[in-house]
Amino acid sequence: MSRDIDVLVLGGAGVDTIVYVPELPLRHADSLMVRPGIETRAGQTGDFVALGLHALGLRTHHLDLVGDDPEGDLVRALHRDRGIPLTAVPQPAGTKRAVNLVGPDGRRLSLYDDTRSRDADRLPDETVRELAGRSRHAHVSITHPCAHALPALRDAGVTVSTDLHDWDGENPYHEPFAYAADIVFVSTAALADPERTMRHVRERGRAEAVVATAGAEGAYLLAGDELVHVPAAVPPAPVVDSNGAGDAFAAAFLYGRLSGEPLHRCARYGTVAGAHACTVPSTRVEPVGPDRLRSVTAEPEHRAGA
Questions:
Q1: CA-to-CA distance for 87 and 92, rounded, in angstroms?
Q2: Which of 56, 87, 186, 265 is 20 to 30 A distant from 273 in Cα terms?
Q3: pTM above 0.85, yes or no
């Protein structure tokens, strides 16, 4: 079968309502006036990874459960307008949605609607296998149905990546994703000992690389037994919003890897894309392009404990 898809993105399609607030955490009050206002738009983790990959020239296909509702219409329109193929499996519980509170410094608090999923939710096995058989790589969101798709991806012989987001290194829910992926992304935000967690993932799973993103501190790359610190890139404009920075990092890293770049250069691509994302309000969609990534010169990497 022809590999006509560079990256199959599974899960993570949904809608966010963005609220810019005067501070985080919010002080208690009966009401607050907010500017620049409240806006609802399509775009959760899988959507942003797909958008980032597509902007970098990779043939991308997105697969997820999407409801027949106004939120689902926004998701379908986003993919249609950007030219990204979407296989939308009907979701009776409705399209995933969340509210993101964004502070003046770009930090956020995300509130996810947990009623938009069911224990019985599954991505059709036949669909997963057909699309995986056409793909070079699969990026798997940590939503419940995607865990059940991991065996089919492995049977198809496709390489797999996943983003564990703010995993604490202990919650067993994340483990099937962490141990089945060839490339693992995780935030250091909730990790008591990032290096220990990264090495544990390497030892227990099959990852060739584990990447821990650390915001303004850059990232840490574990490949083999070597842990390397990757400095943060300088944002090209003022930081306004951290929404989507991790997704941009993952997309740029995968672009580098699928282009045959060494892992340290892939991580540098990730820091550049993440820094760019922090300068774009999450009410807009402006992923970084390949020219910006290629303009980054190689810098010496420094070994460091995370």
A1: 16
A2: 87
A3: yes
Per residue in 134-156, is it b (16+ CB within 10 Å) or e — as a string?
A: bbbbbbbbbbbbbbebbebbeeb
Query: What distance in Å separates the CA atoms of residue 173 and residue 184, rounded to the nearest whole number?
Result: 15
**CA-to-CA dists, residue 266 to 51, 71, 90, 181, 185, angstroms:** 18, 34, 35, 17, 12
State which H helix or E strand residue 109 sits in: strand 108-112
Alpha-carbon span 215 to 200, nearest angstrom: 22
Separation of alpha carbons 291 and 252, rounded Å:
12
pLDDT of residue 166: 94
Helix axes 70-82, 45-55, angle to 10 degrees: 10
Angle at 259 between CA 257 and CA 262, to 5 degrees: 50
Coil/strand/helix, residue 291: helix
Distance CA 128, CA 10 (A): 9
**Separation of alpha carbons 287 and 248, rounded Å:** 7
Q: List, for residues 163-173, the tens digit of each pLDDT value.
A: 999 999 999 99
Nearest to 243 by CA among 35, 89, 101: 101
| Cβ 147 vs Cβ 177: under 8 Å | yes
First to last CA, the chain: 42
Least Cα distance to 180 among 214, 215, 204 occurs for: 204
Ordered strands of the 14-20 beta sheet = 38-42, 14-20, 96-102, 108-112
Distance, C-alpha 62 to centroid of its chain:
13
